Amino acid sequence: MNSLHQLSLASAATLCLAVAFPATASRYNDPAYREFMKLEERALTSRPQRLDAPLRANNITDEEVREIQQAASEVLPKALVNISGVTSGCRCEDGPSCKAYAWVTAFHQGKAQGLQLALIGADWVIGPVQRWWLDYDRLNVRLEKVTDYQKVEDARRDRILKFPQCAATSQGAQTIAVSPNPIPEDLAVFVFLKLVEDAPAEAVYCPGIDEQPVASKLLRLLQSQNSRFVAREECVKVVDVHQGSFYKPTHRKAYFISINLYAPVPPNRARLQLAQYHHGKWALYETVELQKQNGRWRVVKITNRQMS
Prior knowledge:
Elements: H1 31-44, H2 62-72, E1 80-83, E2 87-88, E3 98-108, E4 111-120, E5 123-126, H3 128-143, H4 149-161, H5 185-196, E6 204-209, E7 212-213, H6 216-225, E8 235-236, E9 246-247, E10 252-265, E11 269-279, E12 282-293, E13 296-307
Parallel strand pairs: 6-10
Antiparallel strand pairs: 1-3, 2-3, 3-4, 4-5, 6-7, 8-9, 9-10, 10-11, 11-12, 12-13
């Protein structure tokens, strides 16, 4: 693979999960509509993955290894387990008591399966986000046999609504999961430009990092190479499939594109989550690993693709 063609806006198929709210032209103004849209995006970009940074200062202990093996046995009781290094910090959805993660690769009947364990308080356990994904994946397996489209929609929507929430701060606002390290500017430019290179000509693009507008310097750099990048603050996110997201000054079709949870992978790789959104039936979320060679970035792996 020599480009991010698979990640481009043009590559997303017609999607299968619609928000179960009335579809009217003004529905994007409905607060419940907008809140579900944000929750869905957070949920589907949260699939646990192996993290290699920032590593915890102290090494994993023998007692912790036993605890992690015991916790993993709930999912794969007869598996052989390999444990990665322990990384500091957690997604806010895993709660304020979460301190660290360990990635477990379990081998069972010749197959490898990854599982994230969280250090919550003093115990290694399957955290709320990982447990949600286990339930969500099992639900999707069951829904493969369901032919009633509305039942499938309703079941998936109900599961999205059960996604763990971040704890509120003392000021009442929720804490947000953000990248533990600032994303290099050249990497951000590479990813954003590749995401939109095959996109519809009539559209504009609303870039963000960790779901926040990109810095003005980065926006100017993107605009110097593609004039259809616009300030995210001037875009309106819409779930309604008849309306779709749009750019306020001109009402042109708009696509929200975000780089989330960037993490460096020494010595010269990076892992990040991408989110692309136009309306409730047009969204794409995936995890991407990239490598820098001879001063240039390239994609080496795409995983955890979710369409919604």
